[in-house]
Design a protein that fits this description.
Elements (H helix, E strand, L loop, with lengths): L10 H6 L6 E3 L2 E3 L6 E6 L4 E7 L3 H16 L8 H17 L1 H12 L3 H22 L7 E2 L6 E9 L2 E5 L5 H14 L3 E5 L6 H12 L7 E3 L4 H10 L5 E5 L2 H11 L5 E5 L5 E4 L5 H13 L11 E5 L3 H13 L19 H16 L3 E4 L14 E4 L6 H4 L6 E7 L2 H8 L7 E5 L3 H10 L4 E4 L18 E2 L8 H4 E9 L1
Parallel strand pairs: 7-8, 7-10, 8-9, 10-11, 12-13, 12-17, 13-16, 15-16, 17-18
Antiparallel strand pairs: 1-2, 3-4, 5-6, 6-20, 11-19, 14-15
Helix pairs in contact: 2-8, 3-5, 3-7, 4-5, 5-6, 10-11
The chain binds NADP nicotinamide-adenine-dinucleotide phosphate and magnesium ion (MG).
NADP nicotinamide-adenine-dinucleotide phosphate binds next to helix 8 and helix 9.
């Protein structure tokens, strides 16, 4: 059984990787009911990193039962908002204290640069839990003046109950935080299923959740495959709500599975975001923003600016700068301090990205730079800029989820808006211009859950995030996320 040695630099990280990991059910670390484990790989080398307990239907059943008990009758059901807030804040502090361990495990598991994992994923996770700690004591109903004579009405905001949460591999720790933070602030109990490729930081988070004092059964973490553990969770008749981030294709399956008991569903799905540069923009900033918008996290970002539109007279200038940026990136394993672009998450993802670009080239797209994998071990793909594309091509329409951008020129703003919106997705968009009126017009024309103006990939726990159209249902973060994790009860009294 492979167990990684010498890869982690921190003591806690080495200890974590020194034996197969178990799952967290009812406050205990247990093996799968089947006794099975599955391998987790290091994408920088393709070698096996560690074995992890493989959850399946029976484990999901046990976890849901534990969550139900914690929610209905355990100490959690009597925990005050103030105490919930303190536990969430304590959790944020434990994560901050162990930032180096989280960052190295995220890097080894997902491939991303360790420094980036620390600065973005871990820091963002800490901030997210702190923000949600604040909400725990601020969840209110309202009072109503009713017209029925002699009555008084008010609403209560109550937790939904047992929440199933299924998360992807691109930001494993941060996606766990986006899901757990609001669910716990509102008083729910949770069964979390991390992605098969990247279960490690969620499992380490489970240890901290225990250290922070959350009672047994409040958070259960069941690693395993989507088709088994994930499907069992989304179809479970005793789960009140399911929250999912991942592909639109699986989002549809979740919605169908949830229909059995009509559980509440929130979905954060794919994207194919337009990133639009007007000729009057700060071209240096826009070019850097275009590069960051697509190459950050190896392009494995649901809101990646994967369709670049540049006003004709600046097209060559911006695209030339983007090619220079791509070619100057240091491609290296995530644990190399000089890493600017790490490997993709898996051999499967490398194959997907390679296939998209190959088919794009066959259809006539031209790779100005990149266009194929890096030779050697690991799942590295070159940062790629495709031009000579048309709106019907697969590379323009489908989410590639790799460091691949398609660049197209435009000259008419109305035509541009139509083309930018000509996609089943609507997660995000970027606009670069120094004309404030143009910026506002575009913000209103674009059908997307987030519009970044003269910036890209800026996140804040206080800013809602989610999709129009087939990019999802519901909004995470901000006050909006409280709607996903509370039920509204109207109480009417005849006085
Ligand atoms: P995925 O299958 O949608 O995975 C997301 C999560 O859903 C994982 O935890 C997965 O488990 C689980 N899952 C899979 N099938 C399920 C099912 N039938 N029922 C319940 N849960 C299920 O994504 P992927 O296969 O890893 O990646 C494929 C493509 O999805 C990517 O190329 C990308 O285009 C897109 N994607 C988007 C996002 C995003 O943030 N919007 C994130 C990841 C991927 P397993 O890990 O076992 O599959
Ligand atoms: Mg999958």
């Amino acid at each position: 059984m492979a167990v990684a040695e010498g890869l982690a630099k921190t003591q806690r990280g080495s200890a974590f990787l020194s034996s197969p990991r178990k799952m967290l059910i009812n406050g205990e670390w247990v093996d799968a009911a089947s006794g099975k484990t599955f391998p987790v790989y290091n994408p920088a080398t393709g070698e096996e990193l560690i074995q992890v307990a493989e959850g399946d239907k029976e484990d999901i059943n046990r976890a849901v039962a534990a969550a139900r008990k914690a929610f209905e009758e355990g100490p959690w059901s009597k925990t005050t908002p103030n105490v919930r807030g303190k536990m969430l804040w304590k959790l944020s502090e434990l994560i901050a204290e162990n930032a180096d361990t989280f960052a190295e495990l995220e890097s080894l598991d997902n491939g991303k640069a360790c420094a980036m994992a620390k600065a973005v994923d871990v820091a963002g996770t800490v901030e997210h839990f702190q923000y949600m700690a604040g909400w725990a004591t601020k969840i209110d109903g309202r009072t109503m003046q009713l017209s029925a004579p002699g009555t008084f009405g008010f609403t209560l905001r109550e937790p939904v109950g047992v929440c199933g949460q299924i998360i992807p591999w691109n930001f494993p720790l941060m996606m766990a935080a986006w899901k757990l933070g609001p669910a716990l602030a509102c008083g729910n109990a949770v069964v979390l299923k991390p992605a098969e490729q990247t279960p490690l930081t969620a499992l380490l988070l489970g240890e901290m959740i225990q250290e922070a004092g959350f009672p047994e059964g409040v958070v259960n973490i069941v690693p395993g495959y989507g088709e088994t553990a994930g499907a069992a969770l989304s179809a479970h008749p005793d789960v009140d709500k399911i929250a999912f981030t991942g592909s639109t294709e699986v989002g549809r399956l979740i919605l169908q599975a949830a229909s059995g008991n009509l559980k509440k569903v929130s979905l954060e799905l794919g994207g194919k975001a337009p990133n639009i540069v007007f000729a009057d923009a700060d071209i240096g900033a826009a070019t850097a923003g275009a590069a960051m918008g697509i190459f950050f996290n190896q392009g494995q970002v649901c809101c990646a600016g994967s369709r670049l539109y540049v006003e004709k007279k600046e097209f060559d200038n911006v695209v030339g700068g983007l090619v220079d940026a791509a070619e100057s990136m240091n491609i290296a394993p995530g644990m190399d301090p000089a890493c600017e672009l790490g490997p993709l998450v898996s051999d499967e993802q490398l194959e997907r990205v390679t296939g998209f670009v190959e088919r794009g080239k066959e259809a006539g797209a031209e790779a100005l730079t990149g266009g194929d994998p890096v030779d050697g071990n690991g799942y590295f793909y070159k940062p790629t800029v495709l031009t000579n594309v048309n709106p019907d091509m697969e590379v323009v329409r489908e989410e590639i989820f790799g460091p691949v951008v398609v660049a197209q020129p435009f000259d008419d703003i109305d035509e541009l808006a139509r083309e930018a919106n000509d996609t089943p997705y609507g997660l995000s968009a970027g606009v670069w211009t120094s004309d404030i009126s143009k910026a506002h017009k575009m913000a209103s024309k674009l059908k997307a859950g987030t519009v970044w103006i003269n910036c890209y990939n800026v996140f804040d726990p206080h800013m809602p995030f989610g999709g129009y159209k087939q990019s999802g249902i519901g909004r995470e973060m901000g006050s909006e996320v409280l709607d996903l994790y509370t039920e509204v009860k109207a109480v009417c009294i005849q006085l």
